[in-house]
Amino acid sequence: MASEEPKIRVEHLDMAYGNFVVMNDLNFEVRKGEVFVIMGGSGCGKSTLLKHLIGIIEPAKGEIYYDGENFTQADDDVKKKMLQGFGVTYQGGALWSSMTLAENVGLPLGEFTTLSQKEIREVASYKLSLVGLRGFEDFYPAEISGGMCKRAGLARAMALDPDVLFFDEPSAGLDPISSRLLDDLILELRDSLGATFVVVTHELASIFAIADRAIFLDAKTRYQLEVDNPLKMRDHSDFEAVRTFLLRGENAAPVAVG
Ligand SMILES: Nc1ncnc2c1ncn2[C@@H]1O[C@H](COP(=O)(O)OP(=O)(O)OP(=O)(O)O)[C@@H](O)[C@H]1O
């Protein structure tokens, strides 16, 4: 379970594309072993924040720390090493269509370890079994469902035993049942692996199901409004925008009809 110790610390982070400012002065911590959700309305900067956390985009200002070590200012070698501790699952799973599931999961192992082909196959099978895909090693992505592709993407993200896993929009494109199964899997992996999850989603059902804590990014003010447990925020937030989002607008004044 989550400890109070921060896995990630973000300090005074400004995010921008050129002159276009996305968010100002983000400050928050992600605790070890928790599921931390990045939430907010469309276009508020959720994916942009994820890209900052995994080093795809450099901050306009501010710093990101992992286990107390400065990721933003780290030199290339140190950064590369830190990156190997991250597992990333992109929307849709982002699997190579010409490779089987075992080959997809084995790809990072071939690149970053000295394991033999046989060992790689064994680790890939094990990772696939962790996400409920035992027996699907030799299937191609086109032969399995969207939900299974996302699970295979998660297995690939876990290939190098990362201690922090990033997941971009796990529910996107999934029916409610598959989405629920994926949520259950995230919680199961949090508990069994003790991994820290950072998840981008705007699906309320998922947010309430998986998030130990969440950050709300406000597109209007371009600041974070709050970091807390989402149920607590829904019922007690001082910010109307946060309550409105988490209540799907049901606290909004009724619109006169007719
Ligand atoms: N490469 C880019 N260049 C310039 N602007 C960008 C770029 N990528 C995103 N933006 C803009 O930055 C803002 C934040 O985008 P981002 O994709 O991070 O939002 P989001 O909260 O993930 O959105 P959604 O929920 O719709 O996926 C948006 O206004 C978007 O148009």
TrEMBL record:
Signal peptide: none
One Pfam family matching this protein: ABC_tran
InterPro entries reported in the protein's UniProt record: AAA+_ATPase, ABC_transporter-like_ATP-bd, ABC_transporter-like_CS, P-loop_NTPase
Transport listed as a keyword: yes
SUPFAM superfamilies: P-loop containing nucleoside triphosphate hydrolases
Top-rank taxon: Bacteria
Limits of the ABC transporter domain: 8-244
UniProt keyword list: ATP-binding, Nucleotide-binding, Transport
Molecular-function annotations in GO: ATP binding; ATP hydrolysis activity
PANTHER family, A to Z: PROTEIN TRIGALACTOSYLDIACYLGLYCEROL 3, CHLOROPLASTIC
Name listed for the protein in its UniProt record: ABC transporter ATP-binding protein
Organism: Cerasicoccus arenae
